[in-house]
Amino acid sequence: MSSLSALKISSCFSKYKLQPSRILHTAWFYFGTSQPVSKRPTHSVPFRTVDLRSDSVTKPGLLMRRAMAEAEYTDDVFGDDPAVKGLQKLAADVFGMESALFVPSCTMSNLIAVMVHCRERGDEMIVGDLSHMHIYEQGGSAQLAGVHSMIVTTLPDGTFDLDQVEAKIRHGYPNVYYPRSRLVCVENSHNIQGGRVLPLPFLQELRALVDRYDLQVHMDGARVMNAAAALGVQPSTILQHCHTVSVCLSKGLGAPVGTVLGGPADFIQRALRARKALGGGLLQVSVLAVAGKMALSDMVGRLPEDHRNARTFAQALLQCNPPIYQLDLNSVETNIVCFRICEPGVSPAELCRRAAQVCEAEERTLGQGVRVLMLPVVGGSVRAVWHLDISEEDTRLAALKMQFVAQQLTKWKARGH
User: Which Gene3D superfamilies does the entry mention (predicted)?
Assistant: First the structure.
């Protein structure tokens, strides 16, 4: 394809507000590895891609891109950037917190929070065994901050047994044998547990517990806006029970990059130093800050649409014949669906591979090819995540594709595989 042709196609997407994921493709995709999901088909089959791997795959819309293009460039490291200041002020107001700091990623934001709360090497944080901070952030708290993790069991709804939390709190500091308990970390909504929303009474009781022992609560609130939408409350209603929070702007809210770390003013002052040490000072960052501000102010109201589509997909999985998908419909509270496959010999990775493939039989059955991109996750489940680039029609087609995959697996097993 010539560069001129590519420019014309790009302009078409922008002019008519089209997302490439909504278009019929004959291109080739890869699924989470360095290898293609299958060999290139002999005959080209038109297909539509429904990308449910994560809500982090969202793309800025036309208005957001225009705002980014018109941003004024000043230096945030010197504290001169009005766009960053505006974003941080808005975030602090939305969170009900004293201050806030723009950070490149939620992983960095969580690490900064740990570094500031746990001020001495050898301090300890209490964290769930299925939390994103424990599983998916490379052990950065130990690797970079010198902070030890004490693990508690994550319950199916994303909460902890508070008696277990209390039993894990260290006493007798400065006993030379033990680290010092400083911090308890929660995740809301909970990724691995399928987007579960932490109940407000749990957060209230946890805050009362940590206050008794002079500890702090940090919330990995990458999707706390989804949690607030599911509960029908303001984010500040949730966050009043936490000392600090990390809120991602680049997942369901649709900004291209960024997270906001919220907390008390003295905490944010120390967080600013930690951000600089981790390489998070981004100089002329207005182009990202204006997108983040638009995400936080304009995109929160549409999150229930993602929740409805996720639940529609979950209901469709349970209605598939043969019934090879297993999930608890009551656990689908936000934009994440985690489910298991009950077909012997078929792993979550194999199911994801088949969902991402397109064949001519599918085109004959469904009228077109549909590639559904999902991820296998910890615990033997498959995760699908809804976001602003996935429509009701995308959801319907994804459900039809999963029905087709179920039928094909049954035929495959009947042939003795």
Answer: Aspartate Aminotransferase, domain 1, Type I PLP-dependent aspartate aminotransferase-like (Major domain)
